[in-house]
Design a protein that fits this description.
Elements lengths: L18 E6 L5 E7 L2 H7 L8 H9 L2 E6 L3 H15 L6 E2 L7 E5 L6 E4 L7 E4 L5 H14 L11 H5 L7 H4 L13 H15 L3 H17 L3 H21 L9 E8 L3 E10 L2 E11 L6 H15 L6 E4 L11 E3 L4 H28 L2 H13 L7 E10 L2 E11 L2 E2 L5 E4 L8 H18 L7 E5 L2 H13 L8 E5 L4 E3 L14 H35 L6 H11 L2 H6 L2 H8 L1 H12 L1
């Protein structure tokens, strides 16, 4: 039977009872699931005028139909909401970044039970303990059990009939002392099951029972002068103590407790869970949630407490958190500790959460393309608001004021964009004045971009110290764009980064990728300016001597250079060779000039 769907105009018909509600879009796709003490009041709140959150406004604009399910209690609403989110993964609900199948330890339902790890849970096959959030932690438990007890690892069918008929022989495990040979009737079923019973106590976290058992047997062996047996039991007791000391939290007065902590930002939330039994951590798990709306930390943590306690089969009567939460759980104490050992537990949990977040961010950066990573590093080093995908760098070049030129090189996404490089002849400056030249080229560059409605760069880099930087800033001020474009100067000698109006330079780590990128920009601008300057000097000196010949114009000079390639070869050419290019009259003028 299909559920009745309601439109926005029918919200008044929704019930004032606890339950869950579902939003659908025009295509009939489920986009959000929520829970509420009163379905009518909660759904109505989405359509109120006070709604200012952009994400929620966008979700509401997509709602075409509403369904609801009434439940008996708020706790049932918690569970139903959780199951629907995990099953359907609606667009606007949080995304649980966790698709792992957790391992369990199984004690098999067979004669002479086996203890093994598995990710497949089939209740008919045995009793399962877990799940274990860490494979390493699970393996530590298995190694401990095999060190303490002689439990078989084979899959033989050890029925009474098979053993009585002598169907099996002992294997290497028997000879090295890891098994007592129940397959060959060398160990009784009662003796074997006693070991299994002790192993189950460890799997349940009842280490004190096992510890007392080993202590009693060790003392009894010592009283009976069975010192070799007493030493073996002591070694096993030491193993047990060592295992517990690795996971001891604060003290054994804290018995059965669940610890949940959360830290979050605008996009993600990270939740850590510690399950503590008899003073030891038996489960630790951290998960990441992708936030879709502006969910608050209390709501997120409440949801995940229900989910994680169900997943890890926790029945602890006390829950410790780092933020206040409201949970419809009977006979469960919610604690927000301020001091003492329980406060230390929340600090330990938060520490795990922060470490997990750091690992995730580091992992995300490592998957980023190299150029994005470098630009992000540069953004952080220079404290820029935007990622500097478009960077322009300026440099001047002149020798004692002759042929003054400037260059602008452009990098896009951390790479040279040579089509956007620009060369500048200095037009308004007389003599060697780097500051005035820098003012001119910046003014001309950005005046043109503004007039043509072209996008301005994300960062301007000036090759030079504070003087050149101030000149460039004056140009931006004249154009009324100062402050709209981040601008820095980079000095060659100590690789110092200067900000406008800041007397102290910034020193970036010499090994930083961002400094390497700035050096590449500066070196490329310098190379481009020097090359342009040399070409200008060569061009001017190349023609200067031919320009001195009276009666020879620029077209004749171009013909001569096109044919002979250089002034030197023009000088060395014979009269006849010159006549073939420019005629006899002009050839005579050229020859006479060089002869004199």
């Amino acid at each position: 039977m299909e559920a009745t769907q309601y439109t926005r105009d029918q919200i008044s018909l929704l019930p004032n009872e606890p339950g869950i509600y579902k939003f659908f879009n025009e295509d009939g796709k489920l986009i959000y699931v929520g829970k509420a003490k009163s379905i009518k009041k909660r759904v109505s709140s989405y359509f109120g005028k006070s709604q200012v959150d952009r994400k929620t406004i966008r979700m509401v604009s997509e709602i075409a139909a509403i369904e609801f399910t009434i439940v008996n209690s708020e706790f049932d609403a918690f569970l139903l909401e959780n199951n629907l989110i995990k099953t359907n993964q609606p667009k606007y609900n949080i995304r649980l970044k966790d698709d792992k199948t957790f391992p369990y330890i199984c004690v098999s339902n067979e004669r002479f039970p086996r203890i093994y790890s598995t990710r497949k849970v089939v209740p008919e096959w045995g009793t399962y303990y877990g799940p274990y959030a860490s494979v390493k932690a699970m393996n530590n438990v298995l190694h401990l059990l095999r060190d303490l007890y002689t439990i078989r690892t084979c899959r033989l069918n050890l029925s009474e009939e098979n053993i009585k008929n002598g169907k099996f022989k002992v294997c290497l495990e028997y000879h090295i002392g890891n098994c007592q040979g129940p397959c060959a009737d060398l160990q009784t079923e009662d003796d074997y099951n006693h070991d299994i019973e002790q192993a189950v106590h460890i799997l349940k976290g009842n280490l004190s029972l096992v510890r007392n058992h080993f202590k009693d047997n060790m003392q009894r062996a010592a009283e009976n002068l069975e010192f070799e047996l007493a030493q073996k039991l002591k070694n096993k007791l030491d193993l047990l103590e060592k295992f517990q000391s690795r996971s001891l939290v604060v003290n054994q007065k804290i018995t059965d407790v669940d610890v949940f902590t959360i830290i979050s930002d605008d996009k993600d939330a990270y939740i850590n869970y510690l399950k503590i039994h008899h003073g030891t951590i038996i489960v630790t798990k951290t998960i990441e949630l992708k936030k879709k709306l502006n969910e608050n930390e209390s709501d997120l943590l409440s949801m995940m407490i229900i989910d994680l306690r169900d997943r890890f089969k926790s029945v602890s009567k006390e829950i410790i958190t780092n933020v206040p939460v409201e949970l419809p759980l009977d006979n469960v104490i919610l604690t927000l500790p301020k001091i003492g050992d329980k406060k230390k537990l929340t600090e330990l949990s938060v520490k795990n959460t922060l470490h997990y977040k750091k690992e995730k961010l580091s992992e995300a950066r490592s998957k980023e393309p190299a150029e994005n990573r470098v630009l992000r590093t540069l953004q952080n080093d220079l404290q820029l608001k935007n990622l500097p995908k478009h960077i322009e760098c300026f440099d001047n070049s002149n020798i004692q004021g002759t042929n003054p030129v400037a260059s602008m090189v452009c990098f896009r996404n951390g790479k040279p964009a040579k089509r956007d490089y620009r060369k500048y002849h200095i037009k308004t400056v007389v003599g060697p004045d780097d500051f005035a030249s820098m003012y001119e080229v910046n003014y001309r560059r950005y005046k043109r971009l503004i007039e043509e409605n072209q996008p301005l760069p994300d960062l301007i880099v000036i090759d030079g110290g504070k003087g050149q930087l101030n000149a460039a800033c004056d140009a931006l001020k004249a154009l009324n764009v100062y402050g709209q474009i981040p601008i820095i100067g980079i000095a060659k000698r100590l690789e110092e980064i200067y900000y406008p109006e800041d007397q102290y330079p910034l020193h970036i780590d010499k090994k930083s990728e961002s400094l390497v990128l700035l050096q590449k920009l500066r070196d490329e601008a310098h190379r481009f300016a020097i090359t342009f300057h040399r070409n200008q000097r060569s061009k001017n000196s190349f023609k200067s001597e031919l320009d001195d010949i009276k009666g020879i114009g620029s077209k004749t000079i171009d013909k001569l250079l096109a044919k002979f390639k250089s002034v030197k070869k023009v000088r060395e050419a014979s009269l006849k060779e010159l006549e073939t290019v420019v005629g006899s009259d002009k050839a005579s003028l050229v020859k006479a000039h060089f002869k004199n």
